[in-house]
Specification:
This protein has 187 residues and is an all-alpha fold. The chain has one domain. Helix content is 48%, strand content 0%. The chain contains eight helices and no strands.
């Protein structure tokens, strides 16, 4: 059985969100530490832009084809925050400061993860991806991932080009070796 740390979602566009979610091993929400919930949970009074519930966060992982390494988390969080179109520089700095120095264990980001986070925020803003924290994921359960990506403004060709650049920047990275490499024609 695959553990959550080993899990990488398929980039198969024909697979439905529900099928992909069912194949994802999971941890109970209670394992998420208070400091992560403080900044990333929409129920928190000090949540940052892009705050999303755990199920929605998992759906973003699936939609973007990302596993759960610290680089994967940095990318998923960056795209989610960037997709809101309202993340200020100070909020990005606050998040990266907390993720580098307050977060512990698998939630802590390394310096290279912070760079990837910043790149992901910019990517989402330039791609004009719909606010991922506002998506009603439960309504997309039976939809194919390719259709979901398209409806959210996630161009697969641009995403795969980003992943190729990431592989070139961090060729030995755990996430880089597991990124999707399927070639899609430009949309």
């Amino acid at each position: 059985m695959t553990t959550l740390s080993e899990w990488v979602p398929s980039f198969d566009g024909d697979q439905t969100l529900g099928e992909a979610y069912a194949a994802m091993p999971g941890d109970d929400a209670s394992v998420v530490p208070w400091y992560v919930r403080l900044l990333e949970n929409p129920a928190s009074p000090v949540a940052l832009p892009g705050a999303i519930d755990l199920r929605g966060h998992d759906c973003v992982h699936i939609t973007l084809g990302r596993g759960t390494t610290s680089a994967d988390e940095a990318f998923v969080l960056g795209v989610t925050m960037g997709s809101t179109g309202r993340v200020a520089g100070w909020q990005r700095q606050l998040f990266t400061l907390a993720a580098r120095h307050l977060y512990r264990g698998p939630w802590q980001l390394r310096e290279s993860d912070v760079l990837l986070f910043d790149m992901a925020v910019e990517f989402a803003q330039h791609q004009e991806i719909q606010p991922l924290n506002a998506v009603r994921w439960d309504q997309l359960w039976d939809e194919p991932l390719q259709k979901i990506r398209s409806s959210l403004g996630i161009r697969e060709s641009a995403l795969l080009k980003f992943y190729e650049a990431e592989r070139l920047m961090w060729p030995g990275g755990a996430a880089s070796s597991r990124l999707p490499t399927v070639a899609y024609p430009d949309e």
